[in-house]
Write a structure and sequence with these properties.
Layout lengths: L6 E4 L11 H15 L8 E10 L2 E10 L6 E7 L7 H11 L4 E4 L12 H12 L2 H19 L4 E11 L1 H11 L6 E5 L16 E7 L7 H14 L3 E6 L12 E2 L3 E2 L2 H20 L1
Parallel strand pairs: 4-5, 4-6, 6-7, 7-8, 8-9
Antiparallel strand pairs: 1-9, 2-3, 3-5, 10-11
Helix pairs in contact: 1-2, 4-5
Length: about 280
Amino acid sequence: MSENSGVGITGAPARRLAPVPRGRTVRTALILAVLLGAGIASAKPVRKPVSHQHAGATYEGVLVWDDAVKVPRPGLLLVPNWLGINEANLKQAELVAGTTYVVFVADLYGSTSRPKNQAEAGKASSALKADRKTLTARTAAALTAMRSSGKAAGMDPKRIGAIGFCFGGTAALELAKSGAPIAGAVSFHGGLDAVTPTPKKLSARILALHGADDPAVPAADLQAFIADLKQSKADWTLVEFGNTVHSFTDVDADNLPVSKYNPQVARRAYEMMNNFFAETFKG
């Protein structure tokens, strides 16, 4: 895959953690720091596990913020990829947060369910994707937990958004479609099927960041996604990155032709996310 990607734009990311090899964690931190403009030496990221109840089960998300920042910041609900909460995804959350956001990493599987491999992740995420009502209800419960716990971390409750990666991108889009009280949602290489119709007069803005060659999103799904958003008259943007497949922000993705990390596209995508929220929250 070439890093010389074209861009097309259409339209009107103290608990038990899955083990991650130390070399991978360090590499992830360094690469994401460069992409997001984060200063590893000066940042003081804090992680605070936050338990909440939903439908009789316990879920444990993680609130992430830089405690050196003393001014209120927007809050972002971050739904990780299908592996759920693990060390690599928490490191990603720290660097998304930087000094700009308070981030809440959502737990959609439950505190006793942590996928140990891709097979387990596929089973857990597929069950939720097949039941969009439950998926959205769990995401909304995480949003409520973020609202109740974020104030102590300096979160501005009037500026709230959602982002997600792969499976998490689907969850973020479904949350926006549900009419949840968020200003906007960003999907990074998420599923774009239009199972849940987008309501007319949707208040949340939508930004979908998509690899033009992503085999995980069939052409029919992409066209249905566009048609659905067009009928809704929502404020939406779809960005298609040329020569880019699935998981382009995942530094460990290396499984062509399905998935592959693309540092240039990842940098562009994070910049677009920041610009999107800067405009959304200002408005």
